[in-house]
Amino acid sequence: IFVMIACISFWADARTSIMPMMYNIGNYGRYPVDIYDSVIRFVLTWILPFAFVGIYPASYFLGKEEWFLYSFLTPVIGIVFFGISILTWN
After folding, report:
1. CA distance 15 to 13
2. How many angstroms separate the Cα of 22 from the Cα of each of 5, 49, 69?
3. Is 81 exposed, middle or buried (0-12, 13-18, 19+ CB in 10 A)?
4. CA-to-CA distance for 2 and 7, rounded, in angstroms?
5. How far apart are CA 75 and CA 82, in angstroms?
6. pLDDT, position 77
7. Would you kindly state where each structural domain of the chain is located, as residue ranges?
8. What is the pLDDT of residue 17?
């Protein structure tokens, strides 16, 4: 996600305003997603998947069975967003 935003910042006029915003949004991924509203949960899972960085992989080790599928999707989401980052870079 950060590589994609860095690529976009090449085209933006105000490069300094994009990255701090993404770091602040990334802070939402530090907390369990079930404390958030369903819209924010959807954004943190599928649009800006910061929840796949720590919350869903940790759920495997903590025994949260409702998130087991998400914990196994973590490498897939990483590969998908890596591909999108390469396409954005090119």
Report:
1. 6
2. 8, 12, 26
3. middle
4. 9
5. 10
6. 93
7. 2-89
8. 65
